[in-house]
UniProtKB/TrEMBL annotation:
Belongs to the LysR transcriptional regulatory family. PANTHER family: HTH-TYPE TRANSCRIPTIONAL REGULATOR, HTH-TYPE TRANSCRIPTIONAL REGULATOR ILVY. PROSITE patterns: HTH_LYSR. This is HTH-type transcriptional activator IlvY. Residues 1-58 form the HTH lysR-type domain. Pfam families: HTH_1 (PF00126), LysR_substrate (PF03466). InterPro entries: LysR_HTH_N, LysR_subst-bd, WH-like_DNA-bd_sf, WH_DNA-bd_sf. Keywords: DNA-binding, Transcription, Transcription regulation.
Amino acid sequence: MDLKSLKQFQHLASTLHFSKTSEAMFVSPPTLTRSIMRLEEECGAQLFVRNNRNVALTKAGKKLLAFAETTLANFHQLQLDIGHQKDVLSGELAIFCSVTAAQTYLPNVLDSMRAEYPSVDIKLDTGDHAIALAKITTLEANRADAAIAIHTPDFPSNIHFQAIDSVPLTLIVPAQMDVSVVEDIEWNKTDVIMPARGPSKRIVNHWFAEHNIRPRVYAQVSGNEAIVSMVALGLGIGFVPRIVLKNSTAKDKVLSISVGDIESYKLGLCYLKERANEALIQALASLFSVRS
């Protein structure tokens, strides 16, 4: 008993007219008749009472009609379920960002991703902001599909930047240092912990140049978290994003001094423009849009 024959039988049971059903089902009247006869053979009973003027369902025909309606409805639901499964996103999505960005921006986004797209596996890699863009442009196996990165004046034209936050920088000094405003700093007598690379290096160097200050560099380090740790140890002072300080375990060992004229970070979700139409990328970007 095949579904095609059941569909023809169901239609004929509603019209009780062989010509109308054969026309609607795109089969010839003889073909429809043979199909009904096969069903009668399979059921071992007559399904219709036919004469020159009327067609009517028998008791067996009414029972088969109930079976046909249930079977065809169940099959239609199965098709919908399978079609839905085809549309469900799946696969792996690799995201790179700093530890601080992961703590600040990802929890709600990843919770939503797990709820809406449970078949998507998230692979999170953390590290220095300075290598974020390299992570999404590299061809190596450990590449990222998307990254949270800082916008810069020389931002690559092949990378899409979706802004998610503007992050101010703050000057931090050891807690025991007797200063409360930036004007109290004696720069020629104070060691400075400088960023070794990345966008923060440009911003901090630009601020020093604008104020005609030649910093007495004690060390250049990679990562804002490392700057906080070194300042907490009393090895110097330095500039870090406020969100880094907020999430640092050493924040109680330093003082934050506001500097109003230093450039803020423009932080955003980044991915290659050529991948913008990929379903996983679009899903992630959409969730960040809701968040912002």
